[in-house]
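Batch job 17 of 40 flagged for manual review because the log was empty.
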Amino acid sequence: MAKKTPGTRVRGRRAAAVLAVLGVASTALGLGVVLTGGYSVHRMAGEAMAPGLRPGDRMLAEHADPRWVLRGEVYLVDSPWDLHGRIASRVLALGGDRLVCSGGRLTLDGRPLDEPPARQAGTCREDFDVTVPLGRAFLLGDSRAAAIDSRTYAGDEHRGTVDLARLRERVVFHTGPEPPDLPGKLVGSLVLTGLGLLLSACSAATALRARRRAAAAAAPAPGPGVGEVLHDH
């Protein structure tokens, strides 16, 4: 077997160091996205968002910017109306939109809402005609027959609408029957974290091999064993 030279051992240690640096950097970058991305985990309570979100289902949410609230998205809303604590609810309309429930039919700006039929059942338990004020949102639960939402408070001074600043977090993933895809940013961070851990493991293995080779090269040559006879040539 060819003897390992000092140069070979140095290259082995350098390779281990490079892998270690890359591993730490990838792991730090991946975890940084997760930890600084404003993600948090919550547990669904109640039936307001059934059947898509059942009691006990977990929700992954990210910080919501009031300027970028979207119709159709599910948000965690901070103490809306006279309720205490956070609720999960879906944004149906934003500032300037007109929602009308009449004759059992819900329309947004004169057009029927594009929703699953099961979600529409029980929506128009009472007729209403609401034009959403700017900076506010009209919220509905998915379980329309049971949910407490903007319809319940449509007679108040804000017509049941909620200030966008109360929409604290947007639900981006959940463990319900039909979970959505993970956000691309989160997938990328998990890949980076996994790659970093793999590189760190490779670095540790490379460093271990380098130490073993160095120890083997530094070991003295074995002398004659007991009962062996040296012969002069």
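Reviewer: the log was empty due to a logging misconfiguration, but the result itself is present. Helices lie at 6-36, 117-120, 184-218. Unflagging and moving on to job 18.
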